Amino acid sequence: MPQRSHILNKRYARALLSLAVENNILERSYRDMQGIYEVFKNNKSLGILFKSPVIRVSKKQNIVSQLFKNKVHPLILRYMLIIVRKQRGNLLEGISNAYLRVYKEYLGIEQVKLTTAVPVDDTVRARALEAARKITPHEIEFEESVDPDIIGGFILNLGDKQFNASVKHRMQRIRKHLQNH
Amino acid sequence: MSDIKPSEISAILRQEMAGFSLETELEETGTVLQVGDGIARIYGLGNAWAGEMISCNDEEMTGVVLNLEEDNAGIVLLGEARNLKEGDVVKRTGHIVSVKVGKALLGRVVNTLGQPIDGKGKIEGPLYEMPLERKAPGVIYRQPVNQPLQTGIKAIDAMIPIGRGQRELIIGDRQTGKTAIAVDTIISQRECYEKGEPVFCVYVAIGQKGSTVANIVEQLEKHGAMPYTVVVAASASDPAAMQFFAPFTGAAIGEFFRDTGRHALVIYDDLSKQAVSYREVSLLLRRPPGREAYPGDIFYLHSRLLERAARIISSDDIARKMNDIPDSIRDMVKGGGSLTALPIVETQAGDVSAYIPTNVISITDGQIFLESNLFNAGVRPAINVGVSVSRVGGNAQMKAMKKVAGTLKIDQAQYRELEAFAKFGSDLDPLTKKILDKGARNMEILKQGQFNPVPVEEQVVILYCGTKGLLMDIPLDKIKRFEQAFIKSLRETQSGLLARIKEGYWDEDNIGVINKTVETLLPGFTGDKDVLSSSA
CATH fold of A3-105, please? Predict the structure, then answer.
């Protein structure tokens, strides 16, 4: 049930966030969780391991300790051990991802993504940032991606808003227009 | 071909592109988390409204927001779900679900979104946007039902009269002639259409076979009913969401006529199938199931739909202030219109105490109950007079009809009771025998073929003969032939009388003429003589 785990991820992430705020390790926790997310994203077998009911909990805890000890804040490590003990190890990837979102939400950071057909230079980047600042009052985390499929132009995403000025989209609109009129 | 100049081509292209702007607007988007079974879960869409249309895949397909949850929105897809995949971006449209309605829809077959599916090309002419979900008119914008809606079916017009603006349920098992009654009612409105006072009809087919819908359209065409009829079809192969929205499309089309001061009739065939598709969508959206696994708001689904059938107050000034008028028709609003609804519900083995039938019975202003054993016994339309009622139609019934048929219902109920008794074969006293004889003759009069609506004035005269017992000497098997001969003779010699009755006059003179006509015809039918030769 994907949507159920979706809710769960967010709950676990929020719990960690309030703990991080209490212990003043907000930034450290963000870096750690980002690292954890990367690890799980790049090693799918790790997720499968935690999902497996055959492997004993103590073994799973051992693996977590060995992997992350001295690499993450002790509090985060304890948090991960609790999750594994409660048989939710398979959610670690989702929780770490949800944490990144919850963290940005907490600090009021808006994710801005610029999609273009070819890589952009600094002047375009600066103009895109400027345009994004006009739309949102929040702090901005900038991300770029290249997608030749859009042919030309650009797509600017801010949270759940979108400014679609791609050639592909315009051509589709022209097609719609010709069909309907 | 060589004399076409490139400049001409570009001029034509420019003309075609007139009104197209490349201006890009800020759109609100969401990403698809999960798709399946015609449902999609969307992350994002922070400001979406419940009931808003969502465009997916660059406007290739639309969806409707039904669930707004803590961190996702549940939408139903009105189209093929296979084109949508996880991670796709969907957009808000800022419109709630609506259809484009206008007189140009008449004679057409459309789907739930108002798009033509009859292969007759685009719908040309002015169209107005009407929302599918709209609040019913408030109390002050209504008036009581006071005008009859002639179904052309003797048993209904005489005993279960339907008024314009009424909601009358047609209920019965499969194969009892529910759709036949609805189609006959549409065909019967041809007279009004030809007189220039049309009752526009909307037939909504929900979850039926494509072939059945095609058949009905063909019959309507054959009987000249399509020029004032719109067919909304959501066949069994359409997505469940299309099926459960279809009656709302029908209501929106009907409302266009209702609010512009005209009369309309909408038939929902049938609401039990609609309830099933709503249940399907609700369960997929993980709404908690209730009785018979229907969601908790299934009653509200039907009550808000049927509440939109109304008789609008005749004052234009008050009608113009009506609640929730769509902007598109605001300056066309007139009073005095009506929307009559004939919902159809199918029962299983005559069980009216199932969930959906009881719900819809309690919502409507009466029901026409059809029975399969009557149908099999040759009583067609197979209406069970005892349990069929019309709670408001009586006020709208024509005066002449009221006088003639006033006692018919009680007479027939009494007959039914005694008939069961008489089956024991004991000796009967003369009074009982008389009731039985008269009842049997009335039953014979009330039988009527399909696609054969009877004008109200002809109904009045033949029912008069029946209720007054003028036909007691005619053998049962000759009643039908007498009726034909009688109506034929009246049409030929007394057309003035029929016209007067139609206008509502019913006096001693009329009665005298009818009595005399019956007397002259009677000898040809009482004996064993060859009837056809003597009546011709």
Answer: Peroxidase; domain 1 (1.10.520)
